[in-house]
Design goal:
Layout lengths: L1 H11 L2 H19 L25 H11 L1
């Protein structure tokens, strides 16, 4: 029902305003329907890459080291 009402109202608009409606719809799709980096699942490709130093550093020491290296 909502789609029919929207279509009716959009069709009444002049072409230049219909284009604005289309532009706004594209904006909303990008904003709300396109996944962002925050929404993507984490990938753990690096998991286990530091196991050779796990006996040498604790997790807190590694955090400090990472900041130092960065």
């Amino acid at each position: 029902m909502m789609a029919k009402e929207l279509l009716k109202r959009i069709e009444k608009l002049p072409l230049d305003l219909q284009k604005e409606v289309l532009d706004y719809l594209e904006f909303l799709e990008k904003k709300y329907l396109t996944p962002t980096n925050k929404e993507k699942d984490f990938e753990f490709r690096w998991e286990g890459c530091l196991k050779h130093i796990k006996e040498k550093y604790s997790s807190v020491e590694l955090q400090h080291k990472a900041l130092e290296w960065w």
